[in-house]
Q: What sequence folds into this?
């Protein structure tokens, strides 16, 4: 098995910036990524799509091409289409590519696995025609497809970005149901100072809103009681606003109320995580280099706490400075000198976050759904089922999983984990930290038994 | 006295015993751990199994047979009481062999045991072709199998949940998130937990799985048990591929194929390893080649609770009469016996089963 100085998991902004920086410092680097082309979710398919759809997707998106360019370095082995399913001590990383199992060794590992959209369990959210706003945006980036008669539901900057992109594409959404309230905005004002330091983001947000308003997209803020109606597929969204029940017919519903760190890989290694009250999600515990409590494992980007693409890049480079110093490629003095401007820029990037987190909190109805609402889509487990397991003594999600199969399906709990934790925490009167999270184990992504079995005999250098 | 019995450990073993005691009108408090406790009850393979057990101790074979024989009725009652069925299938199970020699050696051992059990050991030997009629998806490397008609399998998680529900329904008090730190017997028993909870009881049952190693000596037990890791795999849900369960694989009632299990002496490490799961995958494919295409969706490691000879331990403390150690590796197979038969032994009734061979006395010879 070949052993690289650094193996990066994920070719989004954090991973790409880190790989380029590490190669520049003379480290041997392999970057493993699931997608056929680099970019991560934010710059998905940027090398192709920026050329043909740059006008719709915007300047910030096209910028990603500067990062993909950084991967074209002789010291970087970029393995695309690689599904990583196990990371073990040592480090031994198992993945499949084109139906074959392979392994690679690493002295240091950087997890740059990014974010997932926060699940938004509402009545009717499992109907065909309902998808996450991020999934809708992927269709736009990859194939230029835009849904007609779509209603956007939720809150946050990404919701505005997608709405504006739909406007630019000539198919504006039928309506936006925004779940943030006036009270949220007032609370957010406490963080106005930081927000003003991040004025570029506010300006960008204001620009997106202007585009949406100019296109006369109806907006309903502070909507409650949101339900997707339909027999075989989504046909309308109903909600209450100002005491009045309303109904908007539609064909597609995009749900989004923020993103949360994708912690599956870190959790499978046993990295300590804690509940972040401001971001309402679990984040791995890392120091200001991105180093966690498992020596040799670094985490950068949204996977270590939501900070956005620019912050991810900076965090990726900071992590590399530290690990390169550990590997003797950089003196501590040089490390700190080079880190200084990166840290200043990172602080600047993160300044707007407390404001955004307070102004666009997760939708309360989706954190504590009605009993009949499904929370685990793979195994069709409802919120009421989870509350019932709490009555049977389940203090945490692993017991609830054993009782009701929530989290046992192919998504490995990615889409129900936070819902199940918050439901149990509420039912047992405990904090999310006390309640805990699913124990994540390999395979991080499904792998066939044939691929697994073949690894016994496989030449461990076959991946080279 | 708070309760007639306090049961330390709320897994399948502790809850089965609690259920049986509650049915007799006794009061029971169960002290259970938290979400992160080692829980063989949610990591086990789910077999209700007779063959190969007790080859050196026919009493163990009988005890397993007895439990298997009353399992269906036990599951039925739990299902009716809780409104959720406990799936069970008892139409036999296999021990697959990949060489004639190993098949022959095993058959000889079974014949000896069969004599010791007065012929009550219904098994038959199937050659490859006979086996193929029963299991059309079997692979060419399997030379034959022993089909034992008393074997079967259950949904162990549904069993755990049914017990948790029914024990509560019958008035059992279950305290969760508890770590027992001390047990004293000034007069009656007094059990103290880490969070300061205390429970006084007439009798104490220690059924805390691996937790008994620490607590056992405080109660006067040797509790010579150790963890042994078993890694287990489960595939995506598939159409019917496997007819009867074996030690290698079984198709669970939800449709997934469960593949087990490694035997590893690695202490309290319940992790999953790539070599471990690759090895299991290879064995499963050797038995059922079609499985090569199946997606693995989950794997886990769980720790078996093993005594030196692998047999259960049922022991009343000499130092603290009224305290009992109840521990075993096969908590699912023995669940029915623990629920229906063990209460007689604990209460010392005339119909109490003779469990002398399972006492700790067998470990005293050095």
A:
């Amino acid at each position: 098995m070949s052993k690289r100085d650094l193996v990066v998991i994920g070719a989004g902004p954090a991973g790409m910036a880190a790989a380029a920086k590490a190669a520049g410092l003379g480290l041997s680097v392999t970057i493993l990524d699931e997608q056929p082309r680099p970019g991560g979710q934010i710059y998905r398919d940027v090398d192709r799509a920026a050329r043909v759809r740059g006008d719709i997707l915007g300047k910030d998106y096209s910028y990603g091409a500067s990062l993909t360019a950084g991967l074209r370095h002789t010291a970087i082995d970029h393995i695309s289409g690689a599904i990583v399913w196990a990371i073990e001590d040592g480090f031994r990383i198992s993945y499949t590519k084109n139906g074959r199992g392979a392994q690679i060794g690493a002295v240091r590992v950087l997890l740059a696995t990014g974010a997932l959209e926060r699940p938004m369990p509402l009545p009717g959210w499992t109907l065909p025609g309902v998808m996450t706003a991020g999934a809708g945006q992927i269709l736009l980036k990859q194939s230029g497809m835009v849904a007609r008669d779509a209603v956007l539901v939720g809150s946050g900057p990404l919701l505005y970005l997608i709405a504006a992109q739909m406007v630019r594409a000539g198919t504006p959404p039928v309506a936006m149901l925004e779940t943030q309230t006036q009270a949220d905005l007032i609370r957010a004002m406490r963080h106005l100072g930081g927000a003003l330091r991040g004025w570029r983001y506010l300006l960008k947000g204001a620009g997106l809103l202007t585009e949406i308003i100019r296109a006369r997209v109806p907006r309903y803020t502070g909507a409650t009681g949101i339900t997707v109606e339909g027999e075989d597929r989504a046909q309308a969204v109903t909600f209450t606003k100002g005491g009045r029940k309303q109904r908007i017919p539609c064909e597609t519903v995009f749900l989004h109320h923020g993103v949360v760190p994708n912690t599956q890989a870190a959790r499978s290694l046993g990295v300590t995580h804690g509940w972040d009250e401001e971001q309402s999600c679990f984040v791995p515990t890392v120091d200001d280099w991105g180093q966690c409590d498992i020596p040799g494992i670094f985490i950068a980007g949204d996977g270590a706490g939501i900070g956005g693409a620019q912050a991810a890049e900076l965090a990726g480079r900071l992590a590399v400075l530290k690990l390169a110093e550990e590997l003797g490629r950089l003196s501590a003095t040089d490390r700190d000198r080079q880190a200084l401007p990166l840290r200043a820029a990172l602080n600047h990037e993160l300044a707007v976050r407390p404001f955004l987190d307070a102004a666009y909190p997760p939708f309360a109805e989706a954190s504590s759904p009605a009993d009949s609402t499904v929370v685990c889509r793979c195994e069709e487990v409802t919120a009421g089922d989870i509350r019932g397991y709490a009555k049977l003594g389940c203090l945490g999600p692993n017991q609830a999983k054993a009782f009701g199969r929530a989290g046992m399906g192919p998504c490995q709990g990615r889409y129900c984990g936070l819902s199940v934790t918050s439901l149990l925490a509420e039912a047992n009167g405990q904090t999310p930290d006390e309640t805990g999270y699913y124990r994540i184990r390999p395979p991080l992504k499904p792998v066939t038994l044939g691929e697994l079995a073949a690894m016994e005999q496989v030449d461990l250098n076959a991946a080279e | 006295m708070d309760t007639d019995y306090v049961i330390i450990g709320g897994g399948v073993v502790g809850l089965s015993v609690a259920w049986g005691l509650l049915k007799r009108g006794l009061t029971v408090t169960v002290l259970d751990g938290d979400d992160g406790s080692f829980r063989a009850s949610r990591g086990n393979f789910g077999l209700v199994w007779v063959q190969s057990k007790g080859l050196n101790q026919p009493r163990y074979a009988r005890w397993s047979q007895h439990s298997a024989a009353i399992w269906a009725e036990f599951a039925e009652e739990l299902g009716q009481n809780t409104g959720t069925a406990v799936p069970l299938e008892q139409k036999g199970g296999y021990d697959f062999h990949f060489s004639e020699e190993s098949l022959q050696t095993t058959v000889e051992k079974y014949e000896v045991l069969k004599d010791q059990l007065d012929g009550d050991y219904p098994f038959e030997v199937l050659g490859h072709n006979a086996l193929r009629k029963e299991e059309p998806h079997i692979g060419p490397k399997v030379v034959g199998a022993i089909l034992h008609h008393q074997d079967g399998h259950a949904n162990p998680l549904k069993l755990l949940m049914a017990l948790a529900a029914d024990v509560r329904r019958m008035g059992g008090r279950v305290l969760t998130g508890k770590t027992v730190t001390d047990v004293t017997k000034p007069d009656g028993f007094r059990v103290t937990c880490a969070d300061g909870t205390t429970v006084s009881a007439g009798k104490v049952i220690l059924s805390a799985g691996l937790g008994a190693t620490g607590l056992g000596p405080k109660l006067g037990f040797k509790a010579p048990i150790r963890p042994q890791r078993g890694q287990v795999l489960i595939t995506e849900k598939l159409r019917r591929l496997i007819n009867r369960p074996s030690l290698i694989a079984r198709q669970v009632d939800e449709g997934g194929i469960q593949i087990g299990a490694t035997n590893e002496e690695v202490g309290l490490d319940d992790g999953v390893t790539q070599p471990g799961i690759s090895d299991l995958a290879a064995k499963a494919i050797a038995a059922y080649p079609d499985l090569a295409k199946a997606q693995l969706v989950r794997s886990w490691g769980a720790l078996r609770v093993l005594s030196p000879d692998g047999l259960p331990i049922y022991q009343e403390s000499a130092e603290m009469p009224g305290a009992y150690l109840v521990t075993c590796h096969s908590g699912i197979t023995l669940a029915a016996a623990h629920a229906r038969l063990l209460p007689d032994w604990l209460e010392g009734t005339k119909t109490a089963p003779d469990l002398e061979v399972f006492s700790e006395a067998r470990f005293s010879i050095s």
